[in-house]
Amino acid sequence: MNNVVDFSYSFGTPHRITVAMPDSSSKTLLDLEKGGCKMSWTYDDLTRMPLGALMLPTTSKHVWFRPTVDGIPFADSRWTRSEGHLPVLVNTYFNSSSSVSMKLEIVGGEEAAIVRIDITNADDQERQFQLLCGDTPWSSAYNPNWVNPNDEADVLLAGWLDRADRILVVGIGAEAYTSNPTSFTMSWDVKPGESRTAWIIRPYQAYAADSEKLRIKDWEHDFEQAKQHWRTLLAKAARIHIPDEAVEQCFLACLADIFIMREPVAQGYIAPTPGTEGYRAPNSIEPLLGCIALDQFGMHQEAEAAFRMAVEQQEDNGDWTDPKGWTHLMWAGSGFKAWTVMEHYRLTGNIEFLQEIYPRLTASTRWQEKMRASTRIDAGGKRTSTYGLMPRGMGDCGLMNDEDYYGVFYPHNFWSLFADRLTMEAAQILGKDADEKEFRRIYETAREDLVASLQLGAIQEEDYRWISGVANKTCGSRWGALNAVYPCGVLSAEDELMRGTIRYIESRMSPGGMPLNTGWLKEGMWVAATLDNVAQFHLAEGNGDASIDYLYSTLNHGTPLITWCEERGQEAGTTNCTGDRQHLWTPAAVVRLLRDSYLMEEGTTLHLARGLERSWLISGKKVGITGAPTHFGRVSYEIEYDMELSKLVGKINFPEDCKMEEAILHIRLPLNYEVISINSVSGSVEPSLISGGKLNWKAPRGEVTFEAIIAAAAS
């Protein structure tokens, strides 16, 4: 596969980016298409909604920006992010020769969404630039100048369906304004070689009496301050060195969007949401993956602040699956919560946190055991495929029981069993021997029942078997089947059923390299599931080639704004898009897969560089990660290629007191290269070269350095 980021399989317009400050309720949706940009928002927020409920703020306000030059729309336009990754829109309009242009750069500030307008005339004649700003003619908004010519024409007021004098937007810096009932047009006459800068402001809370204050405010300061806030926040993450600059920009954009899709909710919590509009409500499934990603990059306070709401939603009987919330009857919720809190403990080493959270883990496991006990019923002396499993529940993620949304779904059983395994491990860590014995019995019994069910319920093909969503049925999506290996650990990647499952899932692929039927859309694709399920499975089994290919495919199915809808059709430019237009699961999966490609724990072993693109190590650029938390403490490494001497020079910093039994560095080179010798330069432990071009250190401590001599592989 030609691994280049070019967004060649992006879905059709509009393409969305949301601008805001981190963790803000004041979000501004920007939808891009050729010739214009639509800005949408609401004054509602999640603080008045019941915790965890699927209740959404209604997007009720809209304005369009439509630029022209000499009365004619610009020939072309493009859109990207400021600095390549900030959640700030750069939308440029230009003619065929690019001699005249208008650029809209839009940031979500503390007090307003700020549109900076930059106009350039590099032509040899004077040009008139205009920017229409307004809503449809039947909008409830109005331009007061249209009603009273003595009023200013540079503002739109709410009119109806809101406080009438609320300012929606105000224009600043035009040479002239023309009013229409629900819009205004800003105009500039620009001579050759000249440029102009102007502004449009969407204040989060302002009224007609505030208009003059808005006109004289230093918006340049607020504009730059908002961008600097994002730079400072992203700089807190452990630094990852990716030779492919486009991939690094995508990583940073995805990291930023985890903060875009968080905001205050009821009872003083901050919570992540799966989307910015259609799924703008917190739940305890995919938003928690973003919290794990933040913990993996050392942003522990930010992670805990966001997962607290989900973790603290638990019934008195121990039910941890949000029976009052969006994900009620989705038994996987306990697994996502347990994984989140255990990763937080393992990546911080905070034993007090584990002691605090332990009662929630134990209550959940005991409740789940009661639920499974209710299904341990023989049918005529024989076990059924549902024996010992969690009872009927809601599938979601495209899982179906024939035409029924409710059933006994294998993926939810993988995740609920995973929660019980983590409870057992927490008891062991805390030295609670009696509890550990109890939870081991619960886990092993439940696993035995689940594995027996998988044997009964697997789907038989001509020469292999695979795991479906429901025993003995092929209906619904393929989501979650591979989670039996990673992260849930129910089966090994080499298990016959798992080999058959990955074979079946990859038996039908899209033109852009995505498995089909991974979500709700028949013959469609859920890009996040490809990365989160399929790529992570391959990475866990040690197939870095498949994993990195899926990463590039995922990036190329995004928009130039580095955003993804939830599900979509196969073709480039498809208009068959469902779910939220900007969905969280994919950016969270991108961040997590890249981290695991650089550092991935497997029991007491740490894998380094397990999933790197093969060309990266010989790119001549630094490859590595700095100060990243692992289950063994913080680890850093860097590797660079000396082209003249044909050698890789590397340095790894392991914790001095870590409990790691071994570290494996995967030297992933293009297939026509190989490692021919290793020179250990320093370190308390000598590495050994093992098959596949891997370096192995037993019980490493402190700093180690090495040189690897590489050469063209023998033909």
UniProtKB/TrEMBL annotation:
<dbReference type="InterPro" id="IPR012341">
    <property type="entry name" value="6hp_glycosidase-like_sf"/>
</dbReference>
<protein>
    <recommendedName>
        <fullName>Alpha-L-rhamnosidase six-hairpin glycosidase domain-containing protein</fullName>
    </recommendedName>
</protein>
<dbReference type="InterPro" id="IPR008928">
    <property type="entry name" value="6-hairpin_glycosidase_sf"/>
</dbReference>
